[in-house]
Amino acid sequence: MTPVLEVRDLRVRFDTPDGEVEAVRGIDFDLAPGESLGVVGESGSGKTQAFMAILGLLAENGSATGVARYRGEDLMAMSPSELNRHRGHDIAMIFQDPMTALNPYLSIEKQMVEVVMHHQGLGHAEARAHAIEMLRAVRIPDPEQRIDQYPHEFSGGMRQRITIAMGLLCEPDILVADEPTTALDVTVQAQIARLVGDIARRSHMSSVLITHDLGAVAGVCDRVMVMYAGQVVETGSVGDIFSAPRHPYTQGLLASMPRLDRIDDVLPAIPGNPPNLSDIPAGCAFRARCSRAFEACGEPPPLHPLGGDRASRCHLEDAP
Ligand code: SF4
């Protein structure tokens, strides 16, 4: 099946007062039509910056190279106005904090209806009906009345659901949700992650869920891409990653996940912190935190293909 998005050798750099920081260090992946991909990693792993670069949303001190083909057209080579045509319409991104996506001074109606009128060329009444339908899809109660309210009149969970509805307004091919649940309590987090997955599946949309929480992708995504220090360190189906993780970092993430059958256990956290991206040590970037490091780890490991869509960036795959 031809991928809806093909990313090759994507690199993102930032000029900072401490020098150049390479936040994304050559990542490759495909997103199939209708597929749901979980992108997992600690903060600073490059997961958000990779998608900001693809959508032309990097901060002013950032720059990116590589290829990101959406239905064959390279988004990275487009002018800002061409990219603007695809953003929101073909590829929509939902951000961490709903208050940054919603204008506090405009009613939800004003914010949603104008987007539909602009992107889909509908009249006001049709656009309002479509917006109400989207609010209903994300389970906002009484959407016919509540659409006229302002963001501060909704709870945090509802505001996040409204931003999802806004992301879905133009029926994009790809929905990118960046930690859509960080600001919410655990129960609402699980509901929102499931909601994004359900809507994407029902609408045959491809989706990307960016999260630091490996648990959030279970039951929601088809495939997982684990990132560390700007690189992909493991990929595989959700089933494979959860039942047989190959990379020591993925194994550490999985071991530190709360589980219902181990409610009293003290969860082992991965020791240490991710490396400073302006000064990444030679060899494997995970070496200082890895309990299985050995002599070969002084050299950077390649991403070893493991058959099917599995791969792991670890020298243990070479070890006898
Ligand atoms: Fe650990 Fe070495 Fe594998 Fe890196 S390459 S994850 S240090 S075993």
TrEMBL record:
GO biological process: peptide transport; transmembrane transport
Keyword Amino-acid biosynthesis: no
ABC transporter domain residues: 5-254
CDD domains, sorted: ABC_NikE_OppD_transporters
Keyword field contains Transport: yes
GO molecular function annotations of the record: ATP binding; ATP hydrolysis activity
SUPFAM superfamilies xrefs: P-loop containing nucleoside triphosphate hydrolases
InterPro entries xref list: AAA+_ATPase (IPR003593), ABC_Ni/Peptide_Import (IPR050388), ABC_transporter-like_ATP-bd (IPR003439), ABC_transporter-like_CS (IPR017871), Oligopep_ABC_C (IPR013563), P-loop_NTPase (IPR027417)
One GO CC term on file: plasma membrane
Swiss-Prot/TrEMBL keywords: ATP-binding, Cell membrane, Membrane, Nucleotide-binding, Transport
Bilayer topology term: Peripheral membrane protein
Subcellular compartments: Cell inner membrane
Family listed: Belongs to the ABC transporter superfamily.
NCBIfam families per record: oligo_HPY (TIGR01727)
Name this protein carries in UniProt: ABC transporter ATP-binding protein
Species for this entry: Marinihelvus fidelis
